Each structure stands twice: as C-alpha cells, then as structure tokens.
C-alpha cells in the first residue's frame, strides 16, 4: 500500500536558495525534469514577490536559462535550469526510490512538499537519505493514501482549502464567504487560497474525466 510523506525542509545549499533568502516570495513547483546526471529543469509558478524573484535569478549561481512561460497578471510560470553550483539536490533522493512528487511549494522560508512512495520502506529510506544530506527537515505526517486521500491527486493544502470553502459556503449561491475570509481561516494569503482552489478543481476534474 502506498504511503505519503508530508514534510517541510530548507537548506542554503538548495537551488534558488540565494534568490529566496530574505525575500517575501511564494512559489509552487509545477514540474521537475532531469536533463542530465546533475542538471534539472524546473517549472515554477511565482505568485508573490515576482520582481524580487526576477532580480534574484539574474545573479543566483544555482540557476540559469530563465524563461517566462506564462504570465496571467496574478502569477508567472518560469522555466529554469539548475547548474553545478547546487550543492544539495533533493529530487534524485526520492526519484531513485520510486517516489512521486505530489506537491512542492515555497513559503515563509521553507519548502513544503508531499511525496508518494509505493512502500513504507522506500519512504523510510528517503527520509534517512534526506537527513544525511544535511537538509533541515520538519515532518508534518506520514499516512496511507487510501485512508487519508479521499480525492485522487489532491494535495493536503488543496484538500484543506476545498473543504474550508465548502463548509463556509464558498460554493453556495449566493456565495456566503470570500477568499479573504478563507485566507484568514487557513492562515495563508488570499492569492494562495485562489491558487489552491483553482488547482484543486483541476485535479478533481482530471481525476473524474481524465480517461474520457
């Protein structure tokens, strides 16, 4: 039975560490692709601190070849390649143990991630490798997918946002609450609420109609 590892981590040796240090930047990883033994291609949505992110990546030695893929005025999708200046990379630690990245976002100085593993043993091996790498880790939870994940593909944050929205009448007609009120309830920004709801909708629709 598959297990999901929910945790937060940080290290000054990670990619983008210089760009993110001391800045009020929020971003979410859309996709990670391996371009070689040590080089990755990152696709990240930046929702807060876009200007600071733009300035940072120009002088950050850990990333190169930045491309703006999409810009919808509320958030911007970037594609960046990592360089050999990155001293610590988390991706191969879970990818080589058959892990599947469900979510990863950066907020308040920490990366927050959820990884699915086929077995508890593979999850334990990843956690041990992560600690040995020197990365600072705060574990949020380990759980079996079928008992904790009522909707396929939803991350913990998306599920919490959708649940709060439903319980507080966000989907009622007329609407009984606002994204600002939900943001206060969840203790996150209004932009983060909008993103989690939008991506949660997309995952639910894909899980329901994706094979049709």
UniProtKB/TrEMBL annotation:
InterPro entries per the UniProt record, alphabetical: BAT_GAF/HTH-assoc (IPR031803), HTH_bacterioopsin (IPR007050)
Pfam families named among the record's database cross-references: BAT, HTH_10
Keywords: Transcription, Transcription regulation
Protein name stated in the entry: Helix-turn-helix domain-containing protein
Domain (Bacterioopsin transcriptional activator GAF and HTH associated) ranges: 9-142
HTH bat-type domain span: 154-204
């Amino acid at each position: 039975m598959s297990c999901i590892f929910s945790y937060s981590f940080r290290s000054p040796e990670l990619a983008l560490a210089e760009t993110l240090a001391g800045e009020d930047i929020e971003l979410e990883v859309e996709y990670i692709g391996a371009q070689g033994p040590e080089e990755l291609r990152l696709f990240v949505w930046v929702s807060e601190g876009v200007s600071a992110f733009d300035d940072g990546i120009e002088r950050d030695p850990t990333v190169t070849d930045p491309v703006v893929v999409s810009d919808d005025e509320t958030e911007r999708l970037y594609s960046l390649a990592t360089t050999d200046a990155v001293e610590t990379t988390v991706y191969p630690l879970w990818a080589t143990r058959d892990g599947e990245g469900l979510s990863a976002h950066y907020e308040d100085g920490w990366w927050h991630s959820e990884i699915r593993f086929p077995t508890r043993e593979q999850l334990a091996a990843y956690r041990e490798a992560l600690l040995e790498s020197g990365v600072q880790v705060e574990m949020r939870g380990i759980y079996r997918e079928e008992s904790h994940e009522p909707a396929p593909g939803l991350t913990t944050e998306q599920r919490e946002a959708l649940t709060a929205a439903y319980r507080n009448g966000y989907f009622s007609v007329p609407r009984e609450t606002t994204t600002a009120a939900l943001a206060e309830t969840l203790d996150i920004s209004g932009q983060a609420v909008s993103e989690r709801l939008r991506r949660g909708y997309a995952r639910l629709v894909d899980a329901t109609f994706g094979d049709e």
